[in-house]
Amino acid sequence: SSGINAEYGVMFQRFGDLVRKLWNPRNFRSHISPHEMLQAVVLCSKKRFQFTKQGDPIPFLSWLLNSLHYTLTGSKIKKTSVVFDTFQGEMKVHSRKVAAAGERAVGVEYQTTTTTTPFLYLMLDLPASPLFTEDGDHNIIPQVPIYKLLEKYNNVAEIEYKTYDATFLKRFEVTKLPRYLVLSIKRFKENRFFVEKNPTIVNFPISFDMAEYLEPNVAAQYKSTEYNLMSNICHDGPAVGGTYSAHLHLASARQWFDVQDLHVTKLQPQMITLSESYIQIYERADLAVESKL
Predict the structure, then answer these.
(1) What sign does the CA torsion over 278, 268, 19, 204 have?
(2) Per-residue confidence (pLDDT) for residue 1, from 0 to 100
(3) For residues 284 and 207, is the Cβ–Cβ distance under 8 A?
(4) Tens digits of per-residue pLDDT, 141-156?
(5) How many Cβ atoms from other residues are within 10 Å of residue 218's Cβ?
(6) Model confidence over 218-261: pLDDT tens digits?
(7) For the chain, what is the radius of gyration of the CA atoms?
(8) pLDDT at 104 over 80
(9) Helices marked H in the chain — which ranges?
(10) Is the pLDDT score of 293 beyond 60?
């Protein structure tokens, strides 16, 4: 309806105003208020996202990118926009049904099916926390390298998914790299009674190459398949009542900053990898080279 379109239009305009103020080299004030943008978000999302209540940033990021795309194109169907050109990648999902115990995997329903789907971020699944620990191990936090989590998308690993009446094995094959890659580490598990947080530390480098997770013909399409970390959003504390903060890289100063609300402090790069990372945003290396030319 026209009312809904108007709400999206206001949010889009407020977002544009905020970005222009942030990047205006002649801005008189040293600080910028996002209040008008936040008010537009509350209105446009029907109070799903509120600045008076802390929420999960990954649903908000997905909603914001899709909303900006919708406002630019006027449609949710497959159309291009600067938003999707910047953040959207593509993958093939190969799925096959698993026969139940005592059944034979015969018939069309057990054949592998392949679908192509776009993505705005890749979800990385953490290994389950151990149910029991040895004496003296209570304070030891599990660790896992990010390369292990990215193996989910190497077109080899089969991940089990269960529905109420069937089990499927799926392989994920990335076929198109986005200009900016967003990774979301699945830390929270929610049921009807409580929210559980997985505290596993993910070991990651500031730069990494996606080539080993791509088919050779896909990797050959790009000048570079290497990505450099730009932002790292982490969650500290318990699942309910914890706090979010962001590590941001200012390329022109070659300096990392820790940002939490109004508090901004300089950060050493080696401290970033010690955080409970939740969302990471990477820039493809060839884009950084182009921006310097």
Answers:
(1) negative
(2) 42
(3) no
(4) 889 999 999 999 999 9
(5) 19
(6) 999 999 999 999 999 999 988 888 899 999 999 888 999 999 98
(7) 21
(8) no
(9) 2-22, 35-44, 57-73, 82-87, 146-150, 216-219, 269-272, 285-292
(10) no
Chain CA centroid to CA 113, Å: 26
* Both tokens assigned to 171: 């392989």
**Distance of alpha carbon 9 from alpha carbon 13, whole angstroms:** 6
Please give the Cα distance from 87 to 57 (Å, whole number).
Answer: 16
Task: Say how far apart CA 208 and CA 282 lie, in whole Å.
Answer: 9
* One-letter amino acid for residue 1 of the chain: S
- Specify the pLDDT at position 291: 55
Long-range contacts of 63-66 (CB under 8 A, 24+ apart): 64/15, 65/120, 66/120
Residues 6+ apart with CB under 8 A from 85: 179
Tokens of residue 261, six digits: 């609300």
Give the integer Cα–Cα distance in Å for 145 and 189: 21
Q: How far is CA 216 from the centre of its chain?
A: 25
Are the CB atoms for 173 and 92 separated by under 8 Å? yes
237 phi-psi bin (left φ>0, alpha ψ -120 to 50, beta other): left
Q: Which residues of 111-149 are buried (b: 16+ CB within 10 A; e: fewer)?
A: eeeeeeeebbbbebebeeeeeeeeeeeeeeeeebebeeb
| 5 pLDDT above the threshold of 90 | no
83: left (phi over 0), alpha (psi -120 to 50) or beta: alpha
Residue 117 has phi, psi (to 5 degrees) of: -140, 140
Give the pLDDT band of residue 2 (cuts 50, 70, 90). Answer: very low
